[in-house]
Amino acid sequence: MFSSAQATAWVDASATVIEANAGPLTKLDQAIGDGDHGSNMARGFGAVRERVGGLEDPDLGAVFKGVSVALVSKVGGASGPLYGSFYLGLAKSFGDASEVDDEELAKALPAGLDGIIARGKGQLEDKTMIDALSPALDALEAAVGEGKELGEALDAAEAAAAEGVKATIPLIARKGRASYLGERSRDHQDPGATSAHLIIKALADTVNGR
Amino acid sequence: MGVGMVVVSHSAKIAEGTVELAAQMAGEVLIKAAGGTDDGGIGTDAGMIAEAIEAADSGDGVLILVDLGSAVLSTSMAIEELIDESIRGRVRIAEAPVVEGAVIGAVQASTGATLDEVERAAVEAATMAKVKD
After folding, report:
1. Is A119 within 8 Å of B70 when comparing Cβ atoms?
2. Mean confidence (pLDDT) of chain A
3. Which domains are present in chain B?
4. Is A60 helix (H, G, I), strand (E, B) or coil?
5. B10 a catalytic residue
């Protein structure tokens, strides 16, 4: 089961891990982007914490709608509307439910990814957040399908996201500022995939009580 | 009231300056700036853009000029998810350069032109000769 209390805890854990990694994320973005991913995401998640913290007894849809609205206004860079679309996809998928079963969570996350793809028109191996999220959600779906516990399934998703992040290193960027660099974007880890992995890791840690 | 316009840029100064320039030639056109983040930084803010679109609409539609990257994504987010559904069908992002598109689009809008006509004028600004005869 996945409850709105867990959703709020996930959001809070995401804010914490993004804030803690703002420096490294910005450093990755300085190499191949405009050097603001960490500070942008930290500012966005600061606003998320405030907005979601102020909600009274929210259902799952309200939690993720709140995250989306805060991110699209406060991040500033392309990650704002992209992650905003991810969380809006979750919000629409959950609707006014306050608790869903594991299969529904495993279905809602791909709805979020679809939101990112529709907004940014990106695909696998473009060297973006999709390269971490897509393998993670495939692993999650497979593990849930095999009847694994949600915590264990999310650990598999986290491991797949980490692999996906590493796999961005040799890629040439085809989206975002990094794509302006062409060949020179090779041999760098994608900052968007890195932040996406941190968010999936925060979910696995939250559900596993870590 | 005619077609309204919004200028979206990563920089508040670019957005405001472009509006100022366009207004000098077409003062009666409703044209709004939505640039930068709300704390004065470089970036775009879908919430701010949505408010500007609603403020620029008087029923005849809104043409939006955007600079690059997140300006496009934030604006599409604002149109598809944040503005009032009733005006969504008359709001467009122009495939046009920000400054030239805003000035030429605003001049066209000031003649009482339709959204299609204003959009076409802004798009044509991309290939307007500046140096050649």
Report:
1. no
2. 96
3. 4-127 (3.40.50.510)
4. helix
5. yes
